[in-house]
Amino acid sequence: MNGAEEIATIATTTTATTYDPSLLSIFIQASLAVKLIVILLIVCSFWSWTIIFAKLTHLKRLKAAADKFEESFWNCGSLDAFFENVSSKGGDDPFVMVFIAGMQEWRRAKSKVKSVIGGISLNERIAKIMGVVIGREMEYLERHVGFLASVGSTAPFVGVFGTVIGIVNTFESIGATQNTSLAAVAPGIAEALYATALGLFVTVPTVIAYNKISSEIGKYQNRLESFIAEFSSIVARQIEESEA
């Protein structure tokens, strides 16, 4: 064995001995670009999970409050008495705010003799005002949910970008050392696969959570709109009775 072969053998052995396949070691030995990609994905993952837990907890609380409100609403003897009770307590529950908006408009119009003003019936005005409140509440409820959609759609490509950089680094290492052994190419391949795996790790739960949260928000919105229809029916019936 000549001197050059001996040096190459020692270098290969040293690389194989010192190479640590742990995730922390891969991150430390990765190139700056891959490190930045990994940090970006970790930050996006952390913020996504924060939004996911916050939204799911908030939706669970809203559903429980909606059950309680609807039970009280359908068991109340008088809408006016129920309105006084609900408005005195206040709160930020969308069902309460929608109901208060509808009752306030109804009370303002009760003193009017005509139930149709400007071609728009009182019932329609109440439904429109309650719909505006729903739109405002849904806008608040959907806040930050779009971030989950953005992360779910872009994280795989960010991971693939890290993969490409890792593979490029591998070929550069092969070209510089003229060594195609596993010990020589392992670091570059490892950081490439690391970026790919991290991109998928961020994407999959984020997409699942986004679909779940969007579905729950849609169900809650439908529930609010159904309440508007039911409340409008009650108002229409009482208007007909008062005009009879």
Layout of strands and helices, then pairs:
Elements: H1 3-18, H2 23-29, H3 32-75, H4 79-89, H5 94-110, E1 116-117, E2 120-121, H6 122-141, H7 145-177, H8 182-243
Helix pairs in contact: 2-8, 3-7, 3-8, 4-5, 5-6, 5-8, 6-8, 7-8
- Rg, Å, rounded: 31 Å
How many β-strand stretches? 2
Which residues sit in consecutive blocks of at least 5 with pLDDT less than 50? 3-17, 115-119
Oligomer: single chain
Helix content: over 70%
Span of the ends, CA to CA: 112 Å
Number of helices: 8
Largest sheet: 2 strands, antiparallel
Q: How many domains is the backbone divided into?
A: 1
- Could you state the order of secondary-structure elements as H and E? HHHHHEEHHH
Structural class: mainly alpha
Strand content: under 5%
Look at the structure and give the mean pLDDT.
80
Judging from the principal axes of the Cα atoms, what is the shape?
rod-shaped
Largest sheet: spatial strand order: 1-2
How would you describe the overall organization of this protein?
The protein is an all-alpha fold. The protein has one domain. It has eight helices and two strands, in the order αααααββααα. It has helices spanning 3-18, 23-29, 32-75, 79-89, 94-110, 122-141, 145-177, 182-243; strands spanning 116-117, 120-121. A two-stranded antiparallel sheet has the order 1-2. β1 (116-117) and β2 form a beta hairpin. The longest helix has 62 residues, at 182-243. The chain is rod-shaped, with a radius of gyration of 31 Å.
